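Supplementary notes for students who missed Thursday's class. We covered one full example, reproduced here. Read the sequence, then the structure, then the short commentary at the end.
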Amino acid sequence: MNHLLLADDDPNIRALVRYVMTREGYRVHEAQDGAEAVKVMERSPIDIAIIDVMMPHMDGFELCEHIRQQYDIPIILLTAKDQLSDKEQGYLRGTDDYVTKPFEPEELLFRVKALFRRYNRPADDIIRMHRITIDRKNVEVTDGQSLILLPMKEFELLAQLAQYPGRLFSREELIRLVWGQDYEGDDNTVNVHINRLRQRFADYADDFVIQTVRGIGYKIVVRDK
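Structure (token representation):
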């Protein structure tokens, strides 16, 4: 599932875009200004950013520049202005595309999909941890010789951690990313699935380990070789 940052101080715009993108299978992370968007990106993996230009605290141009310096993701700027100078400023700061308000939600969706096609490289779906290869597109894990079969939630949890080696995820965050916002169970589910993954990959401890950070959550550490 692709994660989308939506930064806009207009709650009506956020509600409209959230509805359309969620319906298409994207997970939407919202921020009402640029400063909040920076914090969202620090705690959640984001695959694409949709940013309003006119926001308090940190405007869209500044946020765009910050994202371009820190992350390699596509960016779409939203603006009520249709002036060449604003578009030039946006492209100079690093945006990939520009949508002028008011806009049709379907047009924004088309642009999001087009940017994903441009950014998507074959390697993006392949995660390697020495002998272990995770193929996110085909939902497969192999050790170079044989296929390792995993239940879907174990696969998604492993892929989520492995995509960001060394990054600490809280249990609550993993629940949100893997099981979804509407999951009604508790975070002990994460502990159970982590223990199962450790048992399944006990023979590959020379390749990677899943570390517990007491009281917070988990991270994958890939061994140096």
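Commentary. Residues 65 and 81 are 19 Å apart (CA to CA). The radius of gyration is 19 Å. If anything here is unclear, bring it to office hours.
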